[in-house]
Amino acid sequence: MLHSKSFVRTTRGGAVKKVVREHYLRDDIYCGSPSCTVCDTKNARLSSSAPKVLVVDTNVVLNQIDLLENPAIEDVVVLSVVLEEVKNKNLSVYNRLRALCSSSARKFFVFSNEFHKDTYVKAMVGESPNDRNDRAIRVATQWYQNHLGGSTQVLLITNDKENKRKATEEGLSAETVETYVKSLGHPELLDLVVLPTNGDVAMEEAEDLRPSKRQVIYAEHKPMSEITSGLHRGIYHQGKLRINRYNPFEAYVGSESIGDEIVIHGRVNMNRAFDGDVVAVELLPQDQWQDVKSLSIAEDEDEEEEDVHLVPNSADDAPRNTTSDDAGGSTGLVSCRPSGHVVGIIKRNWHSYCGSLEPKPLPAGGGGIAHALFVSKDHRIPKIRIQTRQLGNLLDKRIIVTVHSWDRMSRYPFGHYVRTIGAVGDRDTESEVVLIENDINSGPFSTQVLACLPPLPWTLSPEDLANPNRQDLRHVRVFSVDPPGCKDIDDALHCTALPSGNYEVGVHIADVTNFVHPGTPLDEEAARRGTSVYLVERRIDMLPKPLTEDVCSLKSDVERLAFSVIWEMTPEAEIISTRYTKSVIKSCAAMSYVEAQARMDDSRLVDPLTQDLRNLNTLAKIMRLRRIERGALTLASAEVKFQLDTETHDPLDIGMYQIREANQMIEEFMLAANVSVAEKILKHFPLCSLLRRHPVPTKEMLEPLLRTAAAVGLDLDISSSKALADSLDRAVGDDPYFNKLIRILATRCMTQAVYFCSGDLTPPEFLHYGLAAPLYTHFTSPIRRFADVIVHRLLGAALGICKLPPIFQDRVQLTSIADNLNYRHRNAQMASRASVELHTLIYFKNQPTDTEARILKIRSNGFIVFVPKFGIEGPVFLMKKGETGSEWVVDEAHQRVTKAGSKICFTILQTIRIHLEVVEIQPNRKKLQLTLM
């Protein structure tokens, strides 16, 4: 049955255009119930003996997704009209709902009501889209009731008062979420029920606060119509709010409209915005802009000191030029930064938060509703008010809470308890918290995903060898060099001396796309995960282990499929020619960096493999020098290595990770392969290639580095990456660690590199600043990164080996994929860093230590220091908490703090001795405390 849908839309040029689309209606769309005598039941998802089938409306899904994910909620029909509405309103909830509907362990069924001839409804004249969709939900509910007969009750779950009234009038069974959950007889589920704020449904009060006693704390958010108008007129400025991880009362909003960052001081000016929210900001009068000076180390609302953290890898980890991040003083000329306040929230970034409840006496009786404040482990998140019927069971536990509203008359947002992770302080619990805080999916792969794997044990087939697009390179001396204990080996090399005196050098990458096909559950799951995540004690894989550690891993002495980039190079490392091919290899050795370095350094070894290593190293040194001469930056980060107990996984030792020539050798050829592939795919697909760029840092971003350098007598030239690289090379002193510290500070001033679709930007914007490369992508780690999987498909299509999947014709979808990859990549970095911080805390718990530290930032009440041995950063206070006065005087121009009336002085980058010790600052919260010796 064919039905035509017509609507009008406005083109970019302003013209009004009528669009007519054909809409096919069918009568063979099945209900999903295995007990149905009419429908084909082979794909049925509902229970065969379900006494009730639930039909949920859109708002229930949007607001109650945590409840729906609970195993107690089963036999749910998700209508296609609901699925589409959820997708348009909240992509995160949509992905969670899709996961529920695709899980074989859950009884959720998607019914395409919009394409069934008996359930499709046409909008009536004057009917709003929302009313039409509500009517479509009621029509589908009625169809289910008639279709399944009297043996199964069909229940519409809605918190919409009007929708519930109409459903009842039409003879349907309808209940609110709270009423239905109460009927289940599981009181603990009531903690998951979100209290509606729109007044549609009366529910139990969240707190006994009399209106006459409540006060307005925050300004009312402007409506979107006013925000849109204000943005067009330049009154408001849009951007993403980032809260300083070192001071939760300082935030900034990067604004393109004024070309600067707007500083937001205090919770009131943040106006209920969370970190990551897209907000509308109004500038304050200029006389209210605050100087970047005379600042102290931040204390939160409970006067808690800031925690110790790893050194951030880039400026994205903290505000770049806010008052809290720059040292200040009572003297010196420092310009004001634009200051503003949030007038509206354009897009919320609320998600699940991990933490614990504030300890409090249990209420009398113990069985009723108790109100509590939840404290997130992320100090940028305000305390969250929740109500619970199981307070006694939640104290001293790490729990997950989500936010659902924030009243302008409440100091804290309102949320609800989701689930318990484990006991506070337990290492496994705290590791799980790290994953949840960073939205890392550590769950097992579904049966649908595992069904996509090739039969095991996998061996090379005759068809693989007969494939004309795959070259047999098993005779070539290929080998890999990786970190010790590496099982997911996705790159290998070879270096063969040619009669001409040149070298054939090959980079061989695991041919993951031979096993991960577009559109399969395996492909979709890898796309969602985006990247593997490396924690101190374990790895969270992007792909199932049979692929990462066996079928795709380029292990020694086994035949494996690869995608190869092969160059002919002169002894001066000049590339004569480049070719790309799918291949079959058989690695002769899988070495660690230490083993490869030992081979190269042992003059007694003259075997062919060792000679290959030395030849590659010689070429790599030339390539590295040439890259640095072009302007590539040699930056530094505080990478930490742990020695773990094999049984308990507790840290036994901690130290800085050592970089060897072997590391740099492998890095150089991986970089070269990525550049070569970027050039190839962009030539063939100029509008849909996935590339990686590193934006040029602005002078404002580099300001903290320049100020620190000036204070120690350095003159850094930042006019180009080449100028900065040369300046960093000249930044040497008597202290052998001085140069590395300057490079770490430079790293912090950089933005993060990001993935992007080539059709979204112009070629000058493709530049990778840090590598001084006009083009760059990721090709060399497809086992660990989904970006590389996409690039493999692009390269295969460029070579005519395979067709380009249809998704590459959808620019919007490609941009969305790049955005998700950036999000997942950043979260993986943050999770890795948080894991190191956790194990650092565990390491120092029972062994206080005295060590050296370097001063990074000067404050009026102390300074921020970096501890080179352990790669951590934290505050050292010069006065006791709560003390005030002008005993210490800050000299901003020279970056030093002096005790009044004495010769005691501390300067930037100065070496000091500190004491490290874990202390308990309040119940359920410990911290690593740094004190001056």
TrEMBL record:
A Gene Ontology molecular function term of the record: 3'-5'-RNA exonuclease activity
CC cofactor: Mg(2+)
GO cellular component: cytoplasmic exosome (RNase complex); nuclear exosome (RNase complex)
RNB domain mapped to chain residues: 470-801
Hydrolase keyword on record: yes
Disordered: annotated segments: 297-333
GO biological process per UniProt: nuclear mRNA surveillance of mRNA 3'-end processing; rRNA catabolic process; rRNA processing
Composition skew (Acidic residues), residue ranges: 298-307
Gene3D superfamilies to which the protein is assigned, alphabetical: 2.40.50.690, 2.40.50.700, 5'-nuclease (3.40.50.1010), Nucleic acid-binding proteins (2.40.50.140)
Segments forming domain PIN: 52-165
Subcellular location, principal: nucleus
Keyword Nuclease in record: yes
One Pfam entry name: PIN_4
Key words, A-Z: Exonuclease, Exosome, Hydrolase, Magnesium, Nuclease, Nucleus, RNA-binding, rRNA processing
Family matches, as InterPro entries: Dis3_CSD2, NA-bd_OB-fold, PIN-like_dom_sf, PIN_dom, RNase_II/R, RNase_II/R_CS, RNR_Ribonuclease, Rrp44_CSD1
Subcellular location: Nucleus
Similarity field: Belongs to the RNR ribonuclease family.
Full protein name: Exosome complex exonuclease RRP44 homolog A
